[in-house]
Amino acid sequence: MSDEQVLDADQYIENLVAFQDEVQLIDNKWSDSSGYVTRLHLHESDEGGHPLKRFAKGSRFRMMLIEVDDDEQPIDQMTKQRIMKHIESTTKGGRYSREAAMLCKGRDFQVYLYRIGRIAPDWDQAMREAAAKNYIYEVCNIKSRKELDHDEHKLQAFRNMVTNDFFKFMREHPEAVKKRNDSHT
Asked: Rounded CA gap, 100 and 87, in Å?
């Protein structure tokens, strides 16, 4: 492919893009009349006003969303889904309290807590799990992990901690994952 063809392909894609910027998920609900209705927050356009104001109501778009953390780094959805499925299948309680319980038992989360000074290296597994549980209680302002199944704000605090702190740690410290994988070979 020549440089001219690459530039033409880039220009072609640029000509197709109707909107490109960060969006924030506000709400996701089911409507009997419309199906799923999703509300997104879009930043004001450079020209001022709503960035999609030039399009007619009912215009259709093709959309691709990439979840990012607070540092604008993409979150690997396959890894996230695999972790969440494992958590869901191996713990009791509601979905989110099970996720939190499994996270507390996980070596990677315990390594993260050790690195931020919340776990001592000589603690046994029970002490590490208790410290992990207390950390989640503190971060999410809860007294029981069950609250994550019933309080959207506390659940959001849990999700933010997992995505913005723990997953970021895992991405920035691959040696923690490598050690775990090496010890299982």
From this structure: 8
Q: Is 140 exposed, middle or buried (0-12, 13-18, 19+ CB in 10 A)?
A: buried
Residues 6+ apart with CB under 8 A from 21: 42, 43, 51
* Amino acid in position 6: V
Q: Is the model's pTM score more than 0.70? A: no
Sequence spans of domains, the chain: 1-65, 77-183
- Per the CB < 8 A criterion, the answer to whether 97 and 141 are in contact is no
- No. of helices (H) and no. of strands (E), the chain: 8, 2
Q: Give the pLDDT score at 91.
A: 56
Extract the tokens encoding 10: 């880039």
- Using the predicted structure, report yes or no on whether residue 184 has a pLDDT greater than 80: no
The gap between the terminal CA atoms of the chain, to the nearest Å, is 43
Token pair, residue 129, equals: 């799990």
